[in-house]
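Inverse folding, one chain.
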């Protein structure tokens, strides 16, 4: 599995209130996923090779403002990505998707905040599961924290187009400086 937000140059996996199984006051369920920092319209890509198995309104418990996309990964788990901005959604149920294939842009929650809520499930799951406080965790629901941490570490090691340009710029400055040194030395000699 790979990091689903390509523009995120310093990916972090929250624990605590934004993390998996967070016990939030006023909610009757534990947090079933992890909230990744993201801005509205940030590109969301498929974290795996796989197939889109479900798309539905999100959040499902309030007036929906976005969509949730579930992808059955070829490597086994099912991923849920939400909210996706409805107008930007670029996949349909049944589509084959490749790693890094755009799914859409990050949407917005009813109160105006944006983030990427990420859930994981066992193979074959086709609907999200709520984990009610005081009840056992639904058997299909996986803790995505360690998967995301491995993906974040891998993503952080990859050069971004911006840093590649920065590297080129530094190399050019070094050449200019060396050329200047040679000229000064030639002049002094
Ligand atoms: Zn969340």
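Residues assigned per position:
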């Amino acid at each position: 599995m790979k990091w689903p937000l390509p523009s995120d140059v310093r990916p972090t996996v929250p624990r605590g209130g934004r993390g998996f199984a967070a016990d939030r006051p006023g909610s009757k369920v534990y947090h079933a996923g992890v909230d990744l920092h993201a801005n509205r319209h940030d590109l969301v890509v498929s974290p795996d090779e796989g197939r889109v198995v479900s798309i539905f309104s999100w959040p499902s418990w309030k007036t929906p403002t976005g969509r949730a996309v579930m992808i059955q990964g070829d490597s086994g788990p099912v991923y849920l990505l939400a909210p996706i901005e409805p107008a930007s959604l670029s996949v349909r149920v049944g589509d084959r998707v490749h790693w890094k294939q755009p799914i859409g842009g990050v949407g917005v929650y009813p109160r105006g905040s944006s983030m990427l809520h990420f859930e994981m499930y066992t193979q074959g799951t086709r609907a999200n599961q709520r984990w009610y406080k005081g009840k056992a965790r639904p058997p299909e629901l996986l803790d995505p924290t360690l998967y995301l941490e491995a993906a974040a570490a891998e993503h952080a090691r990859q050069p971004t187009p911006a840093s590649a340009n920065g590297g080129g710029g530094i190399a050019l400055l070094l050449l200019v400086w060396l050329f200047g040194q040679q000229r000064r030395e030639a002049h002094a000699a």
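The chain has one domain: 16-188. Residues 31, 33, 35, 117 surround zinc ion (CB under 6 Å).
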